[in-house]
Every structure is written in C-alpha cells, then in structure tokens.
Amino acid sequence: MKDAPETGPNRSGTRYSAADKLKAVKLYFEEGYQAKDIARELGIGKSSLGKWIREYREKGSGLRIHDFYLSLVVKKKVA
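-> structure tokens emitted (79 positions)
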C-alpha cells in the first residue's frame, strides 16, 4: 500500500492512491473490520483512515463505493 504515490503525503511522507483508500474504506464498511485493525494490517495511520471514513460518510452517504472512489480521483486531479 505504501508504494502508491498519487495523493498528497501524510506526516511520514507516504502517499496513498484513491485505490488504496477505497480498499481500506471497503474493508471497514463492507467487511466490517475495525479501523484500528485495518490501519495496522495495511500499514496506514489511524488518523488517515479515520479521515477517509469520515469523507465516505459525508460524501458517500447514499452513494455506492464506486462513486466514492470516483470522488477521490476527481479530487486528486483538481488539487
């Protein structure tokens, strides 16, 4: 997961692609894993994952996961 330089860096300088974010969010919403377990297994920060989950709740509420992914890709292209 740490090899995907597509979005802005976090504190450690690691960048996460929209696909990486989608994978983590899907594990949380569709598979029912706890955020702390996802963060540990994927090697991402809990705060980063929390932000992605919040974004999905805000923007993805009522949307399919695919639509959330597209919003991440568009956000990246605009920035």
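Residues 2-8 have pLDDT under 50 and may be disordered.
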